[in-house]
Amino acid sequence: MYFLYRQSFLLFAVSSLTLYTGAIANECEDQYNAIIFLSNVCDPVEGSDQCPASCQESLDMLDTACSVDGATISGEPYQASTNLAAALIFVDEPCKSVVGDELLSQVEDTCQDIGTLYLSTSVIFCGDDDTPACSPFCQGVLDGFYRSCAVDDEVMIEDSSTGEMDSTPVSQIRLGGEIFLSEACKEYGKGKEFEGSSTSSSSVSSISIFPVILSLVVSSVCFPSWLA
């Protein structure tokens, strides 16, 4: 009898822990949706162009909620280089710098993560020739890209049409991204080289990178499951 009670208690404890862990993991998506879709925490202060303190507070809560094992957005593991980058699309201009700074602080200092971020931001956020200077955020992305990647590194990119992961050399990612960068950001990146880079120009064609960039941009915009 004692053995049966003990087994029942252990089963109950494991089930409760599983439910508790799942609830914590779901807080990541709940907090993400609250910032992007369901609240005004990152709306400018009424009558001004200032980003409210609630935006940074909510981003801090997002970081905490998405740091636990099993945290997901739309069923996929949370990844700042795509999920938080997509958030930049939805927040108003006064809060973009706040979200951008948070993104740079959260993204892993690996070629995989920063290379993914470089591709998406070069197309969407760092290609505006109407701005006279390369923004601090875009400078941070460029600095991280060259700091974290070696010349022979590759970045795994998911093909949105097939769901398969393909490896793309950083030299190809660099050339593809540079096409979309603003003149100011191109100037900022001029002379930067990957670790172990040669001074000779690359012969890799940039044409084949277009499907990769398109796939990444599409997959970066993560809508909540209830909108799917």
Find the structural class using helix and strand composition: mainly alpha
**N-to-C CA distance:** 50 Å
Radius of gyration: 21 Å
The unreliable regions are: 1-25, 198-228
User: Average pLDDT across residues?
Assistant: 77
Task: Please report the total strand number as a whole number.
Answer: 4
Blueprint of the fold:
Layout: H1 2-38, H2 53-65, E1 72-73, E2 76-77, H3 80-90, H4 93-106, H5 111-124, H6 136-148, E3 154-158, E4 165-169, H7 170-180, H8 183-189, H9 210-220
Antiparallel strand pairs: 1-2, 3-4
Helix pairs in contact: 1-2, 2-4, 3-4, 3-5, 5-6, 5-7, 5-9
Summarize this entry quickly.
The protein is mainly alpha-helical and 228 residues long.
Please provide a written account of the structure.
The radius of gyration is 21 Å and the shape is globular. Strands 1-2 form a two-stranded antiparallel sheet. It has a two-stranded antiparallel ribbon with strand order 3-4. A hairpin with a 2-residue loop joins strand 1 (72-73) and strand 2 (76-77). Helix 5 (111-124) packs parallel to helix 7. It contains 9 helices and 4 strands; from the N terminus they run ααββααααββααα. The model is unreliable at 1-25 and 198-228 (pLDDT under 50). It is mainly alpha-helical.
Output the keywords:
228 residues, mainly alpha, two-stranded antiparallel sheet, two-stranded antiparallel ribbon, 4 strands, globular, disordered N terminus, disordered C terminus
